[in-house]
């Protein structure tokens, strides 16, 4: 690499070819992205260590495909419809209607379900009334 040094009133500066400057800028940007990624990973690790919900890939895939979140998350927690319905004080038929989309249900019910399943309410938002 061909570098020239030049004294200026603000101090000595290095003069490098344009291509070398562009290469160094790209390396700097890559380092900043790596640093940002490292911060995100560190934050995620802290959240998991603090008890944040971690969903398996197959559950996330099912949610991403648009499957009913209530059904997916109930099955993830290995609860039957009868068990969940009894726990939150509704009939199994009502829960079935919620899971098939025939009914929405009040937000208070979804809050009870979320608490019982130990999941954030926003995961049930697509089916909450």
Task: Describe the secondary structure blueprint for this structure.
Blueprint: E1 4-8, E2 11-15, H1 18-49, H2 57-64, H3 69-76, H4 81-88, H5 92-100, H6 107-117
Antiparallel strand pairs: 1-2
N to C succession of SSEs: EEHHHHHH
Biggest sheet: strands, sense, closure? 2 strands, antiparallel
Q: Separation of termini?
A: 65 Å
Helix % is 55-70%
- The value of Rg in angstroms is 27 Å
Number of helices: 6
Strand order of the largest sheet: 1-2
Identify the overall geometry.
rod-shaped
- Proportion of beta-strand residues: 5-15%
Task: Classify the secondary structure makeup into a structural class.
Answer: mainly alpha
Number of strands: 2
Task: Quote the average pLDDT.
Answer: 92
Are there runs of 5+ residues with pLDDT below 50, and where? Answer: none
Question: Could you provide a short overview of the structure?
Answer:
The chain has 129 residues and is mainly alpha-helical.
